[in-house]
Hints:
The structure holds 2 protein chains of 2 kinds. Chain A is an all-alpha fold. Chain A has helices at about 10-30, 30-65, 70-75, 80-95, 100-110, 115-125, 130-140, 140-165. The longest helix of chain B is centred in the first third of the chain and has 44 residues, at about 5-45.
Amino acid sequence: MPNTSTKRSYGGWIFLTLTLIAYALLGLLKPQAATQAFNLFAHVITQVLPVLGLVFLLLLAANLLLKPKRIKRYLGKGSGLKGWSIAIVGGVFSVGSIYPWYAMLSELQKKGMRTELIAAFLYSRAIKLPLLPLMIHYFGAIYTLVLCLYLIVFSIINGILVEKLTKPTCYKK
Amino acid sequence: MLTNSFLINSFKKTIHTFINVIPIIIGMLLLTSLIISVFQQQITAGLFGNGDLPDTLLGASIGGIAAGHPLASYLLGGEMLTGGVSLIAVTALVVSWVTVGIAQLPAEAMMLGWRFAVYRNIISFIASVAIAFITIHTLQFFGLV
């Protein structure tokens, strides 16, 4: 996982504080609506809490097993079917903020990584392994499975189209 | 071979990541509960509820503009479903949330080139609409929704 993803971030806490302020204001203006909203929150949080335990375990597994350097090594030299596979699997397993991955892909682009593989990597990041339990919780296992399969197929289509459309001038000097 | 210090370090990293994610989860749950409770009628009968294609385009647009944690899209999408928004529109929102990045576009363009970033985002937006339709129609074809 890129180091930046583990930095202390206060954005979430600021967001939570602002939301609580919105509740307080609503409580003053429309107490009944605030109570109704809070009851809905209480109902949802009891359903989500057990799933968060699983999310924690998957995040731990990702931290233990996956390193950007390892993914970079295989992506940088990838080509053909192997390159596609590595790009898509790498994207699926890449966790954390997108920005360090942009930097890594930019470096690989300079070293000759194919544009289509960069696009496929970025698209396949849509499959968030640690968050799959929550997706299943909200939308069901079959839905999640079908959606993930299409996301993989479209990561290839996306890669091919981006390569074709950007071919002449896409590489930075 | 996993050493003790590596295990401890990974555990600490996970805790830090989790601590960063928790307020987002709770905040999004609180906010979506508030939105659903206060604006339920407007969501189901106002913004959405204009047919599959307009709803899907709207869902994809909201997802593309939103810059929050991907988890937020599941929570918001789940609550929108409860509120009566169609699964196709919610799917477009969830997919475009993680594949289209208007907020990240400048950073992506600076590092990977403007042409690449713009084309990739346009294609991803169209793909999010296509995936939404294909996913739901696949599920309907097999009688799973």
